[in-house]
Amino acid sequence: MSDIPEGLKYTEEHEYVRETEAADEFVVGITDYAQGELGDVVFVELPSPGDSFARMDVFGTIEAVKAVSDLYSPLSGEVVAVNEALNDDPALVNSDPYGEGWMVRIRARDMSELDGLLSDTDYSGLIEA
Amino acid sequence: MSFVPHSDADRREMFAKVGVSDIRELYSDVPDSLIRDGLPEMPDAMSEWEAVRAIQEMAGQNHSLVCFAGAGQYDHFVPAAVDHLIRRSEFYTAYTPYQPEVSQGTLQVIYEFQTMVCELTGMDVANASMYDGPSSAAEAAVMARAVTRRDRVLAAGSLNPHYRKVTDTYLRGQGSELQSIPTGPDGLVDRDALAGALGDDVACLIVQYPNFFGVIEEIEPLAELVQQAGALLVVVADPVTLALLRSPGELGADIVVAEGQPFGNPLSFGGPVVGLFAAKQKYVRKMPGRIVGATVDVEDRRGYVLTLQTREQQIRRDKATSNICTNQGLNALAATIHLALLGRIGLREVAEVSARNAHYARGKLEALDGVELLYPDAPIVREFAVKTKENSRAILERGFSAGILAGVSLSRFPILGAPDGLLLAFTEKRNRAEIDRLVDVIAG
User: CB neighbours of A112 closer than 8 A, spacing ≥ 6?
Assistant: First the structure.
C-alpha cells in the first residue's frame, strides 16, 4: 500500500507538492506510488535554479533501470533550489520520496493553480482506479 | 507456426479500424510521381553460371585506379588479417546483438572499440558506433540541441558538403537548419563572423579538423569562443590525422565525431562504413546509440553489458535521444582489429607516411605552371586543395586514361564557393613514383 501523506497536493502524473515556510514556495517530488512503479532509480535529471516552467512543463527526467519518465511541473514558476543530493544518491527517491528524495523547490507564479491539484483522497482514488 | 505476419483478413480488419481503404492511403504523403506501378522490367531468369558470367562482365567494367581522392574516405591499406578475423562465425554479424549479454565476445570488442575511439579523440565516452561520419555529425547537432535546449546550429563553411547536407536534412526534420560560417583567406574559420553569429539561441558550432580543404583548424580558440556563448563545440575529425595532431578533446571539444572508414574498411564505392562518436562524460545521457560498459558478475568476474539503455528508443520511445538502435557491428569490428594490428606506433607511422606523401606532392605541384595552392600558408596533414587554370574535370579525364584518380574536383561542390581545382588526399599506400605520375597528369 502506497504512502499518500495528508496535507500534500498531487498531480495525475504522480508528482506531489508540499508547502514550505515561504508562502509562495513549494517543494516538488514524486510520490511513493510512482517510485514503487519505477523501481530502482538510477538517475534524476533536474533543472538549474533560475529556470522557469509553465504548469505541466517537463522540468526533468527520472531514470530507473529499464524505464524513464518525464517530470512535470505541477505549478508555473521559477526553480529556487534543486536537491543536489540526488546526483550522488538517486536512490533517495526510493527510500524517502517525501523527505530526502525531494526534487525541486519552486516559487509559484500563480497561487490559484494550487486549486487545480489533487488532494490526497483524490490521488488515492486515482491510483486505486 | 505461420511466419506470415498479416493475412489479407488481418489487413482488412486493420484498415477498417484506422479508417483507410487500402495500403496506398496510408502512404498518401508520398507523391504519385514516386510510386511505381508494379516491378521494373527484369531480365529473364538465368542459370547460376549465366548469372556469374553476367556479373563478371559487369565487374570487368570497373577500372583500377591509383587513388588520390579523399574528401572523407581514404584509400588505406587493410591487412588481410582483418578480413580473415571478421569472417569468423563468432563475429560475423552486422548488428549489435539484441540479447546482448549472451554475446560477451561481441560486447568486449565493442568495449575495446569505444576505448580506442576515446584514446584517439581525447574524449571521455564513446558509443558503439554510428552508421557513418555524416550521420554522426548530424546526430551530434541533434544532441547539442538537446543538451543546450537551444535551436540554432552553426557549421564552418569548410565542413565537408556531404556532412553539411546530411546534417541539414536531420535538422529540417526538427524545424531547424544549418547556418554556415565563412572561411577566412587563411583557410580557417572566420572568427569574427563566428562571434557575430553566436547568440543565446545557438546550440553548437560544427567544425572539421582538418577541414574539408585539409587545413588544420585552430580548435582551442573556437572552443573558447563557442563555449563562452553557452554553446557546444562539435569537431568532425579525420581519425588518421589524430595520430599526429593534438586530440580535439585536449583542445576543448564537447563532442567529436569521425568517419571510421580508414580503419579496416575498404572504399567499396562508398560503403558500408562506420561512424565514430565520442563526448564529454557529462553529456553521456544525451548521447545517441548503444554504449557497452564493463562490470563484474556475481562471482566478481569481468563482464560486459549494454548500459544507459534508457536513452534509447526501445525504452524511451519518442523521447529517445536518437532513432539509432543498433551499431555498425561488423565495420566497427574491422576498425577495432585494424587498429589493434597497427597499435599506437603503427597508426602514427601510417599518418606520418601519408603526411610525408602529401607534403612531397604539395612541393611538386606548387612549382607547376597553371596550378596554385588554394591555401598556400595553411598547415595541412594529408590532404590539400589546389586551384587549377585548366578545368579540373579535364584533368580528371586525363588521369583516368593514365590510371590515376587525380583527386576530387572542387567544382562538384558549388556550395563551397571555392574556385575550380582539385582536392588531393594521400595515404601510406602511395609512393613517390605514383605521386610523380599524378604530377605529370596535372601538368598536362
Answer: none
At residue A67, does pLDDT exceed 70?
yes
CA A76 to chain centre: 13
Residue B329 Cα, gap to closest chain A Cα (Å):
23
Instruction: Return the C-alpha cell found at A86.
Output: 540526488
Q: What string of H, E and C letters represents the secondary structure of B356-387?
A: HHHHHHHHHHHCCCCEEECCCCCCECCEEEEE
Q: Where are the beta strands (DSSP E) in B200-284?
A: 202-209, 232-237, 255-259, 275-279
Residues in B 277-296 with any Cβ partner in A closer than 8 A: 285
| Cβ within 8 Å, pair A67-B310 | yes
Q: Do A66 and B285 touch (CB under 8 A)?
A: no
Q: 3-state DSSP call for residue B18?
A: helix
ipTM of the complex, rounded to two decimals: 0.74
Residues of B with Cβ-Cβ distance to A63 under 8 angstroms: 285, 310
Q: In what order do the strands lie in the sheet with B232-237?
A: B125-126, B275-279, B255-259, B232-237, B202-209, B152-156, B178-181
Q: Domain for residue B13, yes or no? A: no
> Sign of torsion, CA B217 B74 B206 B321?
negative
Judge if B399 and B360 occupy the same domain. yes
Checking phi first, is residue B398 left (phi over 0); if not, alpha (psi -120 to 50) or beta?
alpha
The answer to whether residue B391 neighbours chain A at the CB level (below 8 Å) is no
Please report the residues numbered 293 through 312 in chain B whose beta carbons come closer than 8 angstroms to any beta carbon of chain A: 309-310
Nearest to A45 among B285, B315, B316 (CB): B285
Q: Quick check: B245 pLDDT over 60?
A: yes
pLDDT tens digits along B354-392? 999 999 999 999 999 999 999 999 999 999 999 999 999
Backbone angles phi, psi at B97, to 5 degrees: -65, 150
CATH architecture of A9-113: Beta Barrel (2.40)
B169-206 pLDDT, tens per residue? Answer: 999 989 998 999 999 999 999 999 999 999 999 999 99
Give the Cα separation of B407 and B299 in Å (integer).
56
Degrees (nearest 5) of the Cα angle A92, A98, A99?
A: 65
Quickly list H helices, B149-190. Answer: 161-173
Q: Is B243 inside a domain boundary?
A: yes
Q: Do B180 and B325 belong to one domain?
A: yes
| Cβ within 8 Å, pair B285-A43 | yes
Q: Please, is A86 exposed, middle or buried when counting C-beta atoms within 10 Å of its C-beta (0-12, 13-18, 19+)? A: buried
Please, which residues have CB within 8 angstroms of residue A24's CB and are 6 or more apart in sequence? A107, A108, A111
Q: For B316, which residue in chain A has the nearest alpha carbon? A: A68
Q: Could you list the residue range(s) of the whole structural domain that residue B144 is in?
A: 80-336
What is the SS3 assignment for B208?
strand
